[in-house]
Specification:
Blueprint (H helix, E strand, L loop, with lengths): L7 E3 L32 H5 L3 E3 L19 H15 L27 H22 L1 H18 L16 H5 L10 H20 L2 H19 L6 H17 L5 H23 L10 H22 L1 H7 L1 H15 L24 H7 L2 H23 L3 H16 L20 H7 L14 E2 L2 E5 L6 E3 L4 H16 L24 H11 L14 E5 L6 E6 L5 E6 L4 E5 L9 E2 L3 E3 L8 E5 L4 E5 L3 E4 L6 E5 L8 E6 L6 E6 L3 E6 L5 E6 L9 E6 L5 E6 L3 E6 L5 E6 L5 E6 L4 E6 L4 E6 L4 E7 L4 E8 L8 E7 L3 E6 L8 E4 L9 E7 L4 E6 L4 E4 L1
Parallel strand pairs: 6-10
Antiparallel strand pairs: 1-2, 3-4, 4-5, 6-34, 7-8, 8-9, 9-11, 12-13, 13-14, 14-15, 16-17, 17-18, 18-19, 20-21, 21-22, 22-23, 24-25, 25-26, 26-27, 28-29, 29-30, 30-31, 32-33, 33-34
Keywords: WD repeat
GO molecular function: phosphatidylinositol 3-kinase regulator activity
Protein name: WD repeat domain 81
Length: 848
């Protein structure tokens, strides 16, 4: 399977197979499964969290990658490594292991696996996913890889044990570069790091549309599933945490234009609903106060990051409602006010505030410690004037902040010097601003753990002694000034000046033009969509042949394809997306050993070789273009008329020669192996086409007289022969083990035959003779899910359902601006749902 080969199971990213929703359960983590009345996850499942990354279960594809590589594929892997290094700037350090560590430094479970082994496994898994992102292309990567990673990201925060703060020590240099909007890490962040690496790599590969058109709508969906609910469960609170973490990760990569375009959606569809959830006393969190505290901290960090990106002037216009909603939580918790004024309560509950289930959690979260941690950074950023307009209850927040600072002073031996400026403004002199808000105290609390601002303290013993491991408030002020200068264009030497805004590395695979339109359309389709839609959207053009293209062969991984032409060459092309749909690409490799025009090209999957025929059969290596072997008819007076490859794992081919014989070739041995006679009477004509059953049990030969003969591959006995058409048969193809499809010049129709009975089972009518066709099998397994894509010499392409009378087929004429010349051959990419159309002028077009 094309997508199944990315699937792997194990404790890699930190998500348990038991809690990953399948397609039958729900479309996203935010959606509850209705299989049972209780949607809560058991405590046992929450404590033992592993991973299961299964990216699809499609039945329409081949192996993801064979042994053969083409020129340019190694560049893809190099790009993946480069992108990984660039994306790592947002996630300092190596991906952490997804297992719990005991206090003595040893892994708790399993005992025989070390942390270094787990880290190597994570790096290998990430490298696999990044490589497949480049090989699958934009649509499959977004539909299967990205959607699965987005679901896994939420489950990285599933369970109360994923909300515990980590005790991470920092050296002096890292302290200075720590920004206030970087929230203290929790256990779930370690599990989420490799997932975020892969998601950002996908955005690096295919550009900003992935962020704005897939990630942000997914975030909005997760939040919408929780905002309208009267109560939360473990999945929903994990979805909220995943949404906030992902949004904070992608905001630095948004361009200024994209951020302004998405700002309304980010604020009104994400920020405000999340704020209404954790500032509402009517809602209690299943994981308790710890989850509410983590969500509050990460949301505050996200708001700070957005404020830094849009600038002080835009904060008052865009962020005032969000800031007001956040700080309103202190009024609800401390003054006992109801949250009706802030939260638009649709339930009309009339119980008293102190009876609300979340009131106790509110008091524990919105405490003086949080007031000090939240108020000081926003004051440094906005100044007194703007903060008064954005925070109506500023007096209460100031009072709580001062109360907490006074409590800390009782624990400190050094008297403080607190002098808050009247109106600090971003970009002012850092020396004066830092000294004006300097707090000379060796003891600060921690937000979430025990901190003020971004000063983190860790309780080391039962007596409450604290060890300070973060920066002072003066460094906080200096960091904001440095960030302001970096945003305004002033040179900055701050080590973290790139964390607020980063540029996506330019890539030739960035989605634009027709590729972007097709990607938007395709990811909007359901993964279970069973029909082929031909919209005539031109994506790429391949030029280089000097004559008509007579054969096309798509590699099973749909990453490359081969074309054989009258110009006596076989060319290998890359199917990687490039440009905006107007790009003209050249071949990666050219095979020039043929002496006559090539009429057949096929991939021998069992040995990963290419078979091409011009009357003489050539077997050659697609990596180097070197000829492996050649096969000719035993008598020089005869030539090979038709070729068909036996299905894997058989490493052979069957050829029909002009002396009415079927001969078998083993690509591992020289010479022809055995032969069967095809004589069915005088006037049968020459063999035009061969077809082998999917199981390799029988082979059928079509003659120019309209006769079809079926032989047993194992014994050579003739199973059936009949007069299928009145005229020359153009092509035959096996649909299944009992059905054969044929096209001819007579009656303008495709006929399906029962092989062992020799009778017609159904027919597909066309307005013109069909000289080339391919079959498309949808995601379903029923025969009615199969379709035939047919092409005519009049440049018409039709899609005809098989055995589905209620879905009549239709055809459309190719537009001259999209396709020039006469259509000679077509091939379908079933997983990517694309078409290759070859013309008599030597060009091939990739169309959707």
């Amino acid at each position: 399977m094309l997508v199944d080969t990315i699937g792997f199971t194990g404790t890699i990213f930190g998500v348990d197979d038991a809690v990953v929703p399948r397609a039958s359960d729900s479309t996203s983590v935010g959606q509850e499964s209705n299989k049972s009345s209780g949607s809560e996850v058991s405590c046992e499942a929450e404590k033992d969290v592993g991973v299961n990354l299964e990216l699809g279960n499609e039945n329409d594809g081949g192996p993801l990658m064979g042994n053969g590589e083409v020129e340019g594929h190694t560049d893809m892997e190099t790009d993946a490594q480069d992108t990984y290094v660039e994306a790592s700037a947002m996630f300092p350090g190596e991906p952490s292991c997804a297992v719990d560590v005991e206090e003595n430094g040893e892994t708790a479970e399993p005992q025989d696996i070390s942390n270094s082994d787990i880290k190597k496994l994570i790096r290998t898994a990430c490298s696999m996913v990044r490589t497949q992102i480049g090989r699958l292309g934009p649509t499959l990567s977004s539909k299967y890889v990205a959607r699965t990673l987005l679901r896994i990201l939420s489950f990285c925060y599933l369970g109360s044990d994923k909300h515990q703060y980590l005790c991470e020590e920092m050296d002096g240099e890292s302290q200075v570069g720590t920004m206030a909007y970087q929230a203290q890490r929790v256990s779930g962040d370690r599990h989420a790091e490799p997932v975020l690496h892969c998601l950002i790599h996908l955005a690096f590969t295919y550009g900003e549309p992935v962020l704005t058109l897939q990630y942000i709508p997914h975030i909005s969906y997760l939040v919408s599933c929780c905002s309208g609910a009267s109560k939360l469960n473990h999945k929903r609170e994990a979805g909220l945490l995943g949404a906030v973490v992902l949004l904070q990760c992608i905001v630095p990569y948004l361009s200024d234009v994209a951020l302004i375009d998405c700002l309304w959606c980010i604020i009104h569809d994400v920020l405000l609903p999340i704020l209404r959830v954790f500032t509402s006393s009517r809602i209690s969190f299943p994981s308790g106060v710890q989850c509410r505290s983590v969500l509050c901290q990460k949301s505050m960090s996200l708001m700070m990051l957005i404020c830094l990106r849009i600038g002080v002037d835009s904060v008052q216009r865009h962020m005032s409602e969000a800031l007001s909603a956040f700080f309103q939580g202190f009024s609800i918790a401390m003054e006992g006010k109801g949250d009706q004024c802030m939260v638009r309560d649709e339930h009309g509950m009339g119980e008293a505030d102190n009876e609300h289930p979340g009131m106790e959690e509110m008091r524990k979260v919105f405490n003086p410690e949080l007031a000090s941690a939240a108020y000081v950074p926003f004051l440094c950023l906005l100044g007194n004037g703007s903060i008064e307009e954005s925070i109506p209850n500023r007096d209460l927040v100031c009072q709580l902040s001062s109360q907490y600072e006074q409590e800390l002073l009782c624990m400190s031996d050094t008297p403080p010097v607190i002098d808050v400026p009247e109106e600090p403004v971003l970009g002012t002199d850092t020396t004066t601003q830092s000294s004006s808000i300097l707090v000379n105290s060796d003891e600060f609390g921690s937000f979430g753990g025990f901190s003020v601002g971004n000063r983190i303290q860790i309780r080391s013993g039962p007596t409450g002694d604290c060890e300070t491991v973060a920066v002072r408030l003066s460094q906080l002020s200096n960091s904001y000034s440095v960030l302001s200068m970096s945003l305004s264009g002033t040179p900055s030497q701050a080590p973290a000046d790139g964390l607020v805004k980063q540029e996506l590395r330019p890539s030739e695979r960035v989605l634009a033009g027709n590729w972007l339109a097709h990607w938007q359309y395709d990811i909007g389709l359901s993964c279970t969509q069973g029909h082929f839609n031909f919209n005539q959207v031109k994506l790429q053009t391949y030029t280089g042949h000097g004559g008509a293209v007579r054969s096309l062969c798509v590699w099973p991984n749909e990453d490359i394809f081969l074309s054989g032409s009258k110009d006596r060459t076989v060319r290998l092309w890359s199917l990687r997306n490039c440009g905006d749909g107007t790009e003209t690409l050249r071949a990666k490799l050219v095979y020039r050993q043929h002496r006559r025009g090539v009429f057949h090209v096929e991939h021998v999957e069992a040995v990963q070789r290419v078979a091409s025929c011009d009357g003489t059969l050539h077997i050659w290596d697609c990596d180097t273009g070197a000829t492996v072997s050649t096969y000719e008819a035993p008598d020089s007076k005869f030539s090979i008329n038709a070729v068909s490859v036996l299905p894997a794992p058989q490493p052979g081919l069957v050829i029909a020669t002009s002396d009415y014989m079927l001969r078998f070739v083993d690509t591992r041995k020289p010479g022809l192996q055995h032969e069967f006679s095809l004589v069915v009477g005088s006037g049968s004509g020459s063999v035009r086409s061969l077809a082998v059953s999917p199981q390799g049990v029988w082979v059928s030969a079509a003659f120019s007289s309209g006769i079809i003969v079926v032989l047993d591959v194992r014994t050579g006995l003739q199973l059936r022969s009949w007069q299928a058409h009145d005229g020359d048969i153009l092509k035959i193809k096996a649909l299944d083990s009992d059905t054969l499809l044929s096209s001819s010049m007579d009656h303008h129709q495709l006929l399906a035959w029962r092989v062992f009975e020799g009778r017609k089972c159904f027919q597909l009518r066309s307005s013109e003779p069909v000289h080339t066709f391919a079959t498309f099998v949808g995601s379903g397994t029923a025969a009615c899910d199969s379709e035939v894509i047919a092409g005519t010499s009049g440049n018409r392409v039709g899609v005809y359902p098989i055995r589905a009378v209620q879905r009549p087929g239709g055809s459309t004429r190719l537009l001259p601006e999209n396709f020039r010349g006469v259509l000679t051959r077509l091939a379908v990419l079933p997983a990517k749902r694309l078409l290759l159309l070859a013309s008599d002028n030597g060009n091939t077009s990739l169309m959707a």
